[in-house]
Amino acid sequence: MSRGDRETVIGILKGSMRDNYSEHGVDEYYKKVGATYRNPHFPGVKNCVFLWLNRWWRMRQPHIEDKKFLVFDMACGSGEATVAVLEWWRAGREAYKTRQGDDDSDTDMRARPHSSAKARMPPPIAQDMPVPCILAADPYTSQAFHTRTGLYAHPLSFRDIAEGKLPEVASKPVGAPKSNNPSQTSSPENSLCGHSDASSRSESPIIEMVICSFALHLIEKSSELFALLWELSTKARWLVILAPHKRPEIKDGWGWCKWDVETWSECRMTDPVGELLEDRVHCRVYRSLNT
């Protein structure tokens, strides 16, 4: 099992992740390279996130107006999923500005992208739509996450999250007080909203989606995976799993149903339909049965 079976270029001790895990173990490996970890699968991660968010936006947009748009980057690594979400958002804002400034003739004269590239193009996102509020956690790579994104990840493990703990907003240092300065809300990175402590669960807003990239399959015990996913199903609406394969297996009765992204409907857990595959990165989506 690995966070990426192909070779990495930064934060590596040996030529492949399999060799690193075999020699050092998962925990020890990430303790050694956590500050410099990079996932070489970022192009595939980004493409999958863009395709998923495009479909989600089309189907969910009327439901997120005037609400917080919370995204939990769980086991965030160096922030591949966070970067993809924020790049998607910025591109959507730019698309809206461009559409507002173009007349029909200009639009017709622009070069049309290939169908695959067009499918990944974010939709126009108006200025009054909520900005993504990033929550991030990783017990090993908080420094790598901050270096890449300028945001802050909490050192929460899968077990911590299964026990009910959640990270605070990623735009401020861990434990820092919330800012009341409106001038700090001028960009997607700095306008991320705060999140309630886990102790006040009844008042906490629903997390719109949890994204777990190249990490969930590292949980070896089925009982621990169930505990984590059930807890998340009580706090989040969507679970997006990115991996170089189709592991781990999510079972019925764990608080989630598998979601066919194409038809926007529930499907059987074992059905391969409605999944995304970009640059050898598999993307599976699940809908909570508890929120």
Can you walk me through this structure?
- The protein has helices at residues 17-24, 26-33, 42-64, 80-101, 104-109, 115-120, 142-149, 158-162, 222-233, and strands at 69-74, 132-137, 207-213, 236-243, 256-260, 265-267, 276-278, 281-288.
- The chain is of the alpha/beta class and 291 residues long.
- Strands 1, 2, 3, 4, 5, 6, 7 and 8 form an eight-stranded mixed sheet that branches.
- Helix 9 (222-233) links the parallel strand 3 and strand 4 (236-243).
- Helix 1 (17-24) packs across helix 2 and helix 3 packs across helix 4.
- The protein is globular and about 55 Å long.
- The model is unreliable at 1-10, 104-111 and 181-201 (pLDDT under 50).
Helix count from the secondary structure assignment: 9
Binned, the helix content reads: 25-40%
What share of the residues does DSSP label as strand, in percent? 15-25%
Radius of gyration, rounded?
19 Å
Task: Give me some keywords for this one.
291 residues, alpha/beta, 9 helices, 8 strands, 16% strand, disordered N terminus
Layout of secondary structure:
Elements: H1 17-24, H2 26-33, H3 42-64, E1 69-74, H4 80-101, H5 104-109, H6 115-120, E2 132-137, H7 142-149, H8 158-162, E3 207-213, H9 222-233, E4 236-243, E5 256-260, E6 265-267, E7 276-278, E8 281-288
Helix pairs in contact: 1-2, 3-4
Describe, in short, the structure shown.
This protein is an alpha/beta fold and 291 residues long.
